[in-house]
Amino acid sequence: MDILTLFVIIPVLTIVALVFTKGLKQARLVSMVGSIIQLGMAINLVFAYFKERAINKEIMVFTKDYVWFEQFNIHYTIGVDGISVALLLLTAIIVLAGVFISWKIADLPKEFFISLLVLASGVYGFFISLDLFTMFVFYEIAVIPMYLLIGIWGSGPKEYSAMKLTLMLMGASAVLLVGVLGIYFNSNADGGTLTFNILEIAQVNIPFEAQKLFFPLTFVGFAVLGALFPFHTWSPDGHASAPTAVSMLHAGVLMKLGGYGIFRIAMFLLPAGAMHWSWFFIILAAIGVVYGAFGAIRQTDLKYINAYASVSHLGLVLFALLTLNKIAWNGAILQSLSHGLLTALFFALIGMIYGRTHTRDISKLGGMMKILPFIGAIYVITGLAYLGLPGFSGFVAEMNIFVGAFQNPDKFQRILTVLVVSSIVITAVYILRLVGKIMMGPLVTNDCENLPKATWYEKTGILLLLIPIIGMGVAPLWLSDMLLESIQPFIQGVL
């Protein structure tokens, strides 16, 4: 069994084991063991990647190819570069943290963890796939469990939120499928055979008219999942109604499929289309960054605040990709990793606060630092990291994006960059407002004085996310160098 396929096999084996469990205790134990194995595999892959990269200079390493549907030239083709490896590690960290944060889930625990692992297996498969069709299949496997996870285990208007999320993502998938098929049917433009293989298609000169037509379809199909304005509205409702671990995976992992798909497929395979349409989509991305930040200021529900903040920060990823600049692209990948960790940590903390106070309304919260010192201290640290304080992952990512974007001599792009940079100030406003109100402010009610402290499993989940956030901020060069090396072949095709 090859090293990459195990990322799909292990979650499936964990799911099979969960089927035979009885009760919460067995379900969470099996889920924890399976998730720890996945994290161990991801860490091992990082070291194996560096070792392999020293002797293998191909775009992708650990590649394997198995015929799936010979009639349509569909293969199970897999491989990774530094970007895939980093995102696989991010996924493994957040899945394990989500299991710890869901340690006490009481309603259908076995089914909950099974749905969570189905989502994870789809994400893993997506990140290792080098065949468009196989990648699309894993994409759908990752998206579909969200309906069940929100509709069954969610809160508030969960049926509405689950249906809205599903309809919008399924609509985006339909648009994406048209784009994928358009690429496939133009993959023999140089006289070869039709293929879904990404590396083979990249060598083909797809006609400019086809690129102009299919780039926006492919871009929008992925960008809806990446919360592109104005198609972002499913995200805040989905976050607000989802259980804590699902919000963590939703924002921390699932939404990363959008940016990764744009980078790996839309930009790489349709570079002329990317250059032709970049001016239009970069405007939408810039609007999304500022709109999401202002939207967060207007909210009073902790989850909605974090959801709109996610729209803003993921807008930065799309903006950076559309600048068509190597440094900005490096920032986009770093921002995907940083946002995944930070937003998952925020949702975990919000879930811990809600589980004790039974409210997410900031007007009904206050003095949390005194009542829950561990949760309060981590919340303050996370807030400072989220607004881009040096020493944390957010600063490294955003500096790369802004420096790279401003290198373009085009005045129009520089003006948009200045507009996007202003979102940092807006972010500081709602983060410092939150910290001042719910952490440092006076107690709203005396009923909160004896709330239970953070448990060992909650602390474990929190530290799993916090340590890499600090690690990225303090020692980012090894990761940045790994990403830049992997970005080089892709940026050459665009410029």
UniProtKB/TrEMBL annotation:
Residue stretches spanning the membrane: 6-24, 29-50, 74-100, 112-130, 136-153, 165-185, 213-234, 246-270, 276-297, 304-322, 328-350, 371-392, 412-432, 461-479
Keyword terms: Membrane, Transmembrane, Transmembrane helix
Listed name of the protein: NADH-quinone oxidoreductase subunit M
GO molecular function annotation: NADH dehydrogenase (ubiquinone) activity; NADH dehydrogenase activity; ubiquinone binding
Subcellular location field: Endomembrane system; Membrane
Record-level GO BP terms: ATP synthesis coupled electron transport; electron transport coupled proton transport
NCBIfam families, per database record: NDH_I_M (TIGR01972)
UniProt family annotation: Belongs to the complex I subunit 4 family.
Pfam families in UniProt: Proton_antipo_M
Classification via PANTHER family: NADH-UBIQUINONE OXIDOREDUCTASE CHAIN 4, PROTON-TRANSLOCATING NADH-QUINONE OXIDOREDUCTASE, CHAIN M
Topology term for the membrane: Multi-pass membrane protein
Organism of derivation: Lutibacter maritimus
